[in-house]
Amino acid sequence: MYKTAADALALVSELKKELVGVKDADVEVVVCPPFTALYVVATMLQGESIKLGAQNVHWEKEGAFTGEIAGPMLKESGVQYAIVGHSERRQYFGETNEGVNKRARAALANGIRPIVCVGETLAQREAGHTEIVVRDHVAGALAGFTKDAMLDTVIAYEPVWAIGTGKTATPAQAQEVHAFIRELLAAMYDSTVADKVRIQYGGSVKPANAKELLGQHDIDGALVGGASLEAKGFAGIVKAAL
């Protein structure tokens, strides 16, 4: 919940300058501003390689759901991605695996690629329950997905204990969980699907640690939080992926 529409435009304008020469073929960049800024940012991004994402999506196409936003509304605003199941949504708004599954399905039904977030809390990690929690999130959020749906879905592993805390999973810790997620996908589908699904890491990613994190075998990208609020830092993370 950062940036007015004017602030978002200024950020994206600066980001475009920072990323001159970076093409979609090299690395895909997606910005996910608040709902109030989606339309104006979409207008600025026309003809650009930077993609537009939303921070959530409701599972119904319309109805008495005050405060929510529907897939067709996002699609009309130019949205190509939607984050679902972010840990903050789970923590503060009681979102469940079932709801995340319905939101992800709604995104797909509207031609929007869901970015499905999974990850454990510090207490769960310290109790040795990381794999139990991640398996539950992956299986619940992706329940009933076909292979084609899975190939249009992005997974973001975000250890809750590393979000906004300054703590970061070591590259080895992050790689271990990413490899586990890929193994889960291979068991749910097959190795071909598992290899093609993008699995991103999210948790205090910044220019200083991005290259080492993104260099891990099963880490395909980053879901950037606080560092995305400043164009130069965000661009530094993008360039670390080249």
Features:
single chain, alpha/beta, TIM Barrel, 7 strands, globular
Write structural notes for this entry:
Helices cover 46% and strands 10% of the residues. The protein is of the alpha/beta class and 242 residues long. The protein has one domain (5-240): TIM Barrel (Alpha-Beta Barrel). The protein has a 7-stranded parallel β-sheet with strand order 1-2-3-4-5-6-7. Helix 1 (5-18) crosses helix 12. The radius of gyration is 17 Å and the shape is globular. The two termini are 29 Å apart.
Radius of gyration: 17 Å
The helix/strand class is alpha/beta
Biggest sheet, strands in spatial order? 1-2-3-4-5-6-7
Annotated CATH architecture: Alpha-Beta Barrel
Tell me about the biggest sheet? 7 strands, parallel
Are there runs of 5+ residues with pLDDT below 50, and where? none
Helical region count? 12
Condensed summary:
With 242 residues, this protein is α/β, with parallel strands linked by helices. Helix content is 46%, strand content 10%.
What's the SSE blueprint?
Layout: H1 5-18, E1 30-31, H2 38-45, E2 51-54, H3 71-76, E3 81-84, H4 87-93, H5 97-109, E4 113-118, H6 122-126, H7 130-141, H8 147-151, E5 154-157, H9 171-188, H10 191-196, E6 199-201, H11 207-214, E7 221-222, H12 231-240
Parallel strand pairs: 1-2, 2-3, 3-4, 4-5, 5-6, 6-7
Helix pairs in contact: 1-2, 1-12, 5-7, 7-9, 11-12
